[in-house]
From TrEMBL:
<feature type="transmembrane region" description="Helical">
    <location>
        <begin position="45"/>
        <end position="67"/>
    </location>
</feature>
<keyword id="KW-0812">Transmembrane</keyword>
<protein>
    <recommendedName>
        <fullName>Arsenic resistance protein</fullName>
    </recommendedName>
</protein>
<dbReference type="InterPro" id="IPR038770">
    <property type="entry name" value="Na+/solute_symporter_sf"/>
</dbReference>
<feature type="transmembrane region" description="Helical">
    <location>
        <begin position="199"/>
        <end position="218"/>
    </location>
</feature>
<feature type="transmembrane region" description="Helical">
    <location>
        <begin position="87"/>
        <end position="106"/>
    </location>
</feature>
<feature type="transmembrane region" description="Helical">
    <location>
        <begin position="127"/>
        <end position="152"/>
    </location>
</feature>
<feature type="transmembrane region" description="Helical">
    <location>
        <begin position="224"/>
        <end position="243"/>
    </location>
</feature>
<feature type="transmembrane region" description="Helical">
    <location>
        <begin position="158"/>
        <end position="179"/>
    </location>
</feature>
<feature type="transmembrane region" description="Helical">
    <location>
        <begin position="13"/>
        <end position="33"/>
    </location>
</feature>
<keyword id="KW-1133">Transmembrane helix</keyword>
<keyword id="KW-0472">Membrane</keyword>
Length: 249
């Protein structure tokens, strides 16, 4: 791993928080820039989700079920499908097709095909942290000026998100004990459950109609809670699951 990439990985949480802060400052101090930030959101998200679009497909397919479970069946019936189709095509389907094409090319026998694909793959991996920072900044900048006093509603979500994170840590620890996983595998399970990468639903939140302006910022708030939780878990999980070279008793 190169030194710049190692630095990005080591400081990613601070960089993400910085992106949110910059976006908030830009949105509040220069609200006229919100339309430009909104336009920048789609390509930034498409690039960010280049490596992980399969999960987006599942989220998109399950949206009607989510709305029904949340008592929003009438909303689902009244939604204009065009914004969701646009989100699916440009933010999900295109990155998915591109990712599959690059992965297939990286496995090709022909060197002239494989090497460029490998360079693209390495570049995408290196760009993940900067792209995440960019997405957080432009989403917050494009949405924050219009929320006003409704920001209190976002604060009410923080305890819920924190409770989910704590519950998933407990569930993860229990699952690893039942499965008798070794410590390294157990750590991966706990982190995977506690950090659900809420940004994968951001394209759908941005496609919601007027009246749901808080939805994208609710997703960003979830991401912020996850980031803070990661800071804690990076210290806590190794203490709870020390590496001893044997399954958890």
């Amino acid at each position: 791993m190169s030194r710049p990439l190692a630095w990005l990985e080591a400081n990613q949480v601070a960089l993400y928080l910085g992106g949110i802060a910059v976006g908030a400052a830009a949105g509040i101090l220069a609200p006229a820039a919100a339309p430009a930030a909104s336009i920048a959101t789609t390509p930034a998200l498409a690039l960010l989700l280049f490596a992980t679009p399969a999960l987006m497909l599942l989220q998109f397919a399950l949206l009607p079920l989510y709305l029904a479970l949340f008592g929003a069946g009438e909303l689902a019936a009244d939604l204009d499908p065009r914004p969701f189709v646009d989100a699916f095509v440009f933010i999900i389907a295109v990155p998915l097709a591109a990712a599959w094409a690059v992965q297939a090319a990286a496995r090709a026998r022909a060197v002239r095909v494989r090497r460029p694909a490998e360079r693209i793959s390495r570049g995408a991996n290196a760009a993940m942290v900067p792209l995440m920072v960019l997405v957080l900044a432009v989403v917050v900048a494009s949405q924050i000026a219009g929320i006003g006093v409704s920001a209190v509603e976002l604060l009410r979500l923080v305890p819920l998100y924190a409770a989910f994170l704590i519950a998933m840590v407990v569930v993860g620890l229990g699952a690893t004990r039942i499965a008798r996983l070794d410590a390294r595998s157990a750590r991966a399970v706990v982190f995977s459950g506690a950090t659900r990468n809420s940004l994968v639903v951001l394209p759908l939140a941005l496609a919601l109609p007027v009246g749901f302006e808080l939805a994208p910022l609710a997703v960003v708030t979830q991401t912020l809670v996850e980031l803070v939780g990661m800071i804690v878990l990076v210290k806590l999980v190794p203490a709870l699951l020390p590496v001893r070279g044997r399954p958890i008793a």
